Request: fold
Amino acid sequence: MKIKTLIAGLLVGATLGVVAAQAADLAIVSGDTGTGLEFLRSQLDTFEKETGNKVTIVPMPSSTTDQFGQYKLWLAAGNSDIDVYQTDVIWAPQLADQFLDLSDAAKDVVKDHFPSIIESQTVNGKLVALPAFTDAPALYYRKDLLEKYGKSVPKTWAELAATAKEIQDAERAAGAADMQGFVFQGNSYEGLTCDALEWVKSFGGGQIVEPDGSISINNPQAIAALEAAKSWVGSIAPEGVLAYQEEESRGVWQLGNAVFMRNWPYAFQLGNGDDSAVKGKFDVAPLPAGEGEGARSAATLGGWNVAVSKYSKNPDEAVKLALFLSSTAVQKERAIKQSNLPTIVALYDDADIATAMPIIPRWKDVFLNAVPRPSAPTKVKYNEVSNLFWSAVHDTLSGTGTAAENLELLEAKLTELKGEAW
Amino acid sequence: MTTEALAPPKAVAARRHAASELTRSRVRSAMIFLLPMLIALAIVAGWPLLRTIYFSLTDTSLTNLYGGKFVGFKNYLGWTTLKSGRTIFSGLLVDPVWWNAVGNTVRFAVVSVALETVIGMIVALVLNAEFKGRGIVRAAILVPWAIPTIVSAKMWAWMLNDQFGIINDMLMRLGLISTKIAWTASADTAMTAVLIVDIWKTTPFMALLILAGLQMVPKDVYEAARIDGVHPIKVFFRVTLPLVRPALMVAVIFRLLDAMRIFDLVYVLTPNSSATETMSVVSRENLFDFDKFAYGSAQSTLLFLIIAVMTGIYIWLGNVRFDGGDR
Reply:
């Protein structure tokens, strides 16, 4: 009788186990802004229908810095509540130990993605996360205003400053008191590192820490770049730009109060929404170049990925979700509905995307020339490097010390932080 | 925990010398009643504190919490001698970022608590007067205190926003400013912005505690003063203030402790601005954002010590008694 009970118990257990494996409750974090959350939900609904799993979204703050602190804490504590994390392109080296290796699960699809992105998510041969979309910022400009004043799209930062100043002053004189020339992300957070890296790189000033680990930031071109940026604050950009993240700058822009904006592609779709004051009045171009040797247009490589926590109770289903979110079908939807750049090479030649989002096929070249932040060479110290860099830039922009002083100090601090090796 | 300490059994304290059987059994039962709280405190406050102090003496990182090696006081102060013979100091005690944060915190605590005390006193005096609808006003004044800090910080962040913010809009319409002020962005106004929000939020708390003290002042004292024809301002300084002083001192110490460990407001309103960065903000950054868990623990430990010392000095200087009695 005892054996019968045991067998019955085992059978019940096994059945329950199978049921649990078939329909798991998964949780995914999301710091999406704008309509991103809605979009993610619609995709998850499809996933739920296909697999019978249930997926809950745990909303997070939009700032990548805020998200990182929380995720690191959860992962360090071995939290099993979250199964799938959406990770910033720079996080892979810092969180690699806490995520599952996806190389096996994704071995058939890896070749479809841009190799550089797969490489950025691979740490010591372990594929930490699968790319969901990539990002490279654009210069948003007001077609109508440039036409009105007979200006062309600026190719250099100096042209941008001159055009922005002229249009801003003329528009203000004509009664639009809130008109600003240029808005970007000047708050002291990861976003400022992105913006400032573009300025420095576009002036031929290197990329803070070079791929070989050498610290290159203290150079005349980088100083010139930051001095140029500093001259914008209070003239073509409002002083409040020093507290702006992506959404604040989009706010000013979308109310029709800016001639130019630096932002990621997501703002393209939102700017053409029905509630937007600039609907149909704007277009995008690559960011301007600086001046001097090695000057070129530069865009910081962004992008988000999906990773599976190694503490997940349903790793198999969670991996399926990660694969689903990085799949061609979802990336295509994402491109059309959210104007997020796909990481799958073939999608740049997709006819549907070209019709719905003409920006995306044009963005392939920008993206191929994008500059990575120095997260690979600086490894687990990246956050501190980035923090030191954005603080130095923020100090410069707000007038605490000159660019030359701040970058010299930054070089000394980075050298100390580096020690023997990164 | 301090609230319980406010009213120790008076009989126990007063009659300690007469150690009768009754007193002893009373002490015993007091201990038994206190025991659950002491155990709870040891678990939720004592153990984490000891653990933080221990971490601060190791090289622990967040990804490897149990593998840290003991490094002594290196996180606090360490030095290396270079080949040239020059000695370089490192560690918390010589970290300018840390001392900047300490300065910010102390400045914030002193200014905010001072202003909150003054404004809180005024509000309490008004609420102590008899007028129609006093109950509603008393309830209404507590609203800022009831809103969770994170919500009110976010709300104020939008109100203080330079382009869409209502504060700038009102000041512009009134003609008080000519250009919009970037409250949270500029280093000059960032601290002011944080102070405004904190004072708005915690003045009701201060007012409430002072009001409680005011209501304990016997009415006949005022009557006597009125009959003698004493000027109201003199009444306030000679009668009201000395009588509410014990309650006031306790209120101030609560607020001071609170202000010294301010985190949420600064974190939401002006993240990463060196003009407002407080001790808690810096230590959180090291603990979680940077790969410096041990260093962050050292900062938390020092934060604890600084607050402990400040509280000690305050109690000693102010001769504060927590039972609310007179001196």
Notes: Chain A has two domains: 2-128+302-368, 138-300+374-418. The two ends of chain A are 65 Å apart (CA to CA). Chain A touches chain B at residues 63, 65-66, 68-69, 72-73, 76, 94, 97-98, 178, 186-189, 238-244, 248, 251-252, 257, 380-381, 383-384, 387, 390-391, 394-395, 398, 400 (CB under 8 Å).
